[in-house]
Amino acid sequence: MAVLGIRNPDQEDWARLRGLQYAKLAQGAPLRVGAHIVAAILAIWVYFGSVGVLALVSWVLALVGVLYYGVRCDKSLADADTRRMTSTEFNHHCRAIAFIAVVWCVPIGFFAFQGTAKELLALWSIVSVLIVGSALVVAAAPLGSIIFTTLTGLAAAISAAILGEFAISAIVIFFVGIAIFGTIESARTYLMARIAEAGVVEQSEVVSLLLREFEENQADWLWQVDTGRRVRSVSPRFSFALGKTPIDVDGKPFLQLIAGDSWESGQFAPSLHDLAERLKRRESFSNLIVKVTISGEHRWWELSGTPIIDESGTYLGFRGVGSDVTEQRESSEKIAYLARYDTLTSLPNRLMLNEALRDAMRYAEKWRSRCAFLMLDLDRFKAVNDSLGHQVGDQLLAKVSNRLKELMDDNTMCGRLGGDEFGIVIRDASKKGVVESVARKVISRLSQPYDIDNNTLYVGASVGSAIGPRDGKTVEEIMRNSDLALYRAKDEGGGEHFAYEPMLHAHAEERRKLEYSLRRALENNEMSLHYQPVVDANDEHVVSFEALLRWNSKEHGFVGPDKFIPLAEDTRLIIPIGKWVLEQACIEATNWPSHIRVAVNVSGEQLIEPEFASTVVKALSSSGLDARRLEIEVTESIFLRDANVARAALEQVIALGCTVALDDFGTGYSSLGYLRKLSFSTIKVDRSFVQGAAQNSAESLAIIRAVVAMADSLEMTTTAEGVETAEEAEMIRELGCSKIQGYYFGRPMPALEARAIFDRAGRLIA
C-alpha cells in the first residue's frame, strides 16, 4: 500500500517523498502525450476502413481531451517537491489516468468487433507498449500505471474472449499480471532509491553543519602530530592558541610547545606526564585536562586524541581536537571555594567544619583519643549591628575572624557557622585542660575593644563545647550538644565557657515543652493580668496601675514572667500575647475612675511590627478607653533592635494621645540620647537605685537626684520602682520623685481586687 501511495507509514516522511515522485511527472508529460498520439495514429491506421471516420475522429478528440486534463494535473504537481502533496491532488491524478484508460478501452472494446482478431492483436500490441513504457518511465506514479494496465487489460481480455480468441485472452491476462508486478517492483526500487538519496543528503547536511559549527567555534581547534610527536598540518586556530604563527609551530615538538619553561628543567606538571604517556602508548584519550604554559602564562587545555593508522596498519601519529578551558576551570575552582569557605571572613564554612570534625572523630576512633568542637557566639553583636548598621557589623565580623585565625594552630581549625556564630574543631583534645584553654583564650581575645570607623566597640564571646566521642558518636550529635552548652553560657549572661553535660538535654526538653504549652496558653485561657498600683508621692493617691502578665499553665503550673517572657520574645509569640494584654488592659481600665491610667509593657518585637499602631487603635476603640489614659512602657533596649522603626512607632502612639514611659532607666546605655529624640512622659527609676539609696549609697543617691533634676527640666515625671518600706517611701519623696510603685503600696493583684481598693476619696485602702 505504501508503494502504491494508498497509505503513508509513520517511520518515514512519505508525504514529502510523494511530492518528490509526482513532481517528476510534469517533466515527462510531453513525452507521454507524444507516445499516446503516436499510439493513436497507429490505432487509426489499424482500423482505418473497418471503423467509420466519424467514430475514429470522435475517439481521437476524446483522447486529446483526457490527455489535456491529465497534463494539467501533472503540471499542478510541478512544485510538489517543495511542499506536501495532498490527498485531493493524488485522487485527481488517479482520476485523470482512469479517464485515459477508459478512452483507450473504446477501440479495444468496440472497434475490435468491427475488425478481425488480427487487428485486435495489433491494437493490443500498441496498448501494451504504452503499458510497458508507463511501468518503466512513470515509476514515480505506480498506481496510475496499474489503473491504466488493469482497465485496458480487462477490456482486451474480454473482447478476445467474446471473439472466441481464448488464447489471446489468456496471453493478455498473463501480460497484465506481469506488468502489474513489474510496475510495483519498479516503483519500490524507485522509492528505495529516493529514500536512500534523501538520507545521504540529510547526512551530508548534518556533517556540513557540524563542520561549519566546529570551524566557527573559536574555542576549539584541530591538532596533529607525527610519529616523532612533532606538530603537523597546523590549523590557524591551534597556532593562535599557542601564541605563535603556523610557521613557527610546524615541525616543533608538541610537548615542548605546551610545556613552557618546564621543558628545560624537565619538571613537568602531572597532567603533562599523563599526556606524554598516552602518546607514547598510542592509546586514544578523551577530555584530558592538561596544564600548559603559553607565553609564560599557565592555562588549562582539554585535549582529545586518536592514533592515525593507515590501511596497512602502520602508525602515522596522532590527531585530535582541543580547547582552552581555563575560564571554566577557574569558575569551577571558585565554585568549589565558595562551597567550602565563607565569603565575608574567608574562614571555612559549616560544610568544611563538618568535614573537619568528621575527620577528627575518625582520627579519635583510630587512635583511641579525643576530639572537641567549640561553638561560640558573640555577645552584644546584635546591638552593634542594629545601632551602627550591617556594614559596621560585617567589618566587626571580619576583625573577629582575624583574631580567631591568630589563635589557631596545627591542631585547631576555626570556621564561621553563620551570622555571629563560629566553630572551632580541636583534632586532638586528649590533653587535660586543652578545651578550657582554647575557650578562655578565645573569650579573652574577642573581648578586647575593636576600632571601626572611629567607633570603639566592645563585644564578648560565649563558648559551648562538646567532646567526641564522649558527648556524641556523630558530627550532628557533637554539634548539637555544643550548641546546648553555648545556650547555657548565653543564659548565664555571656562571656563564659560551658562544657556539655547530659542534664542540658533535660533543660532543652523542658524549654521545648514550655514553648509548646506557651503556644496554646491563650487558647486555653491560661493567661491573666494582675495590676500593681502607682501612687502620687505626696498624697499617696492611686494615679495608675501597671498591667503585669501572669501564666498559670495546666502542665507546668505557675510560670514566672522572667522565664516565659524571654521565651515568648525568642519565638515571637510575644506578638499575639502582647496584643491580648493590650486589649484586656484597656477593657479593664474602663472599670476604674476616669482619672486612673493603665500602663502596659511593650517589647521591642512588638514595636517593629508594622501594625503596632493599628493594634493600639483597635484596643482603644473596642474598649472605649480614652487614649490619654493609656501609657506604653518601654525599656531602652528596644532601641537596640531598630531605633528608627521603634521611634516612629512610638511617635504614632504619642500622636494618638497616649503617653510613653521609659522603664529601667539608667541600667543600659545611651539613655540621654533617647530622651533627646523622643518625648517621654515618665522616667521610671530602676529598683536597684532605690535599694542602693536606702542603704545610703552615695552613687545611687546621686543618680536619683540627677534623674529627677533632668526630668524636671524636660517636663517629665519620675516613678521610683521597688519601694517596700515606709522609710524608702519617705526617702523617695524627699528626693523629689513624682510617683512611687512598690510592695509597700500594693503587690500585683487580680482585676477584682484592683477595683476594690478605691474608696470615695480615691485613696489606697491599707
Treating each run of at least 4 consecutive H or I residues as one helix, how many helices?
A: 28
Structural class: alpha/beta
Strand content: 15-25%
Which term fits the overall shape?
Answer: elongated
Any descriptors?
single chain, 766 residues, alpha/beta, eight-stranded mixed barrel, five-stranded mixed β-sheet, 17% strand
Question: What does the model show?
Answer:
- This protein is of the alpha/beta class.
- It is built from 28 helices and 20 strands.
- The strands form four sheets. Strands 12-13-15-16-17-18-19-20 form an eight-stranded mixed β-barrel, surrounded by five helices. Strands 6-7-5-10-11 form a five-stranded mixed sheet, sandwiched between helices.
- Helix 1 (14-47) runs antiparallel to helix 4, helix 22 runs parallel beside helix 23 and helix 25 (687-694) packs across helix 27.
- The longest helix has 51 residues, at 166-216.
- It is elongated and about 160 Å long.
- The relative contact order is 0.04.
Topology:
Blueprint (H helix, E strand, L loop, with lengths): L13 H34 L5 H24 L10 H23 L7 H21 L4 H21 L3 H51 L3 E6 L10 H6 L4 H4 L4 H6 L2 H4 L4 H12 L3 E10 L2 E13 L5 E10 L1 H15 L9 H18 L3 E9 L1 H8 L1 H18 L4 E7 L2 E6 L7 H13 L3 E3 L2 E3 L2 E9 L6 H17 L5 E3 L3 H16 L8 E10 L5 E12 L3 E3 L1 H11 L2 H16 L7 E5 L2 H4 L4 H12 L6 E6 L3 H18 L2 E7 L5 H7 L4 E4 L1 H8 L3 H16 L3 E4 L5 H10 L3 E3 L9 H6 L10
Helix pairs in contact: 1-2, 1-4, 2-3, 3-5, 4-5, 4-6, 5-6, 14-15, 14-23, 15-16, 18-19, 20-22, 22-23, 25-26, 25-27
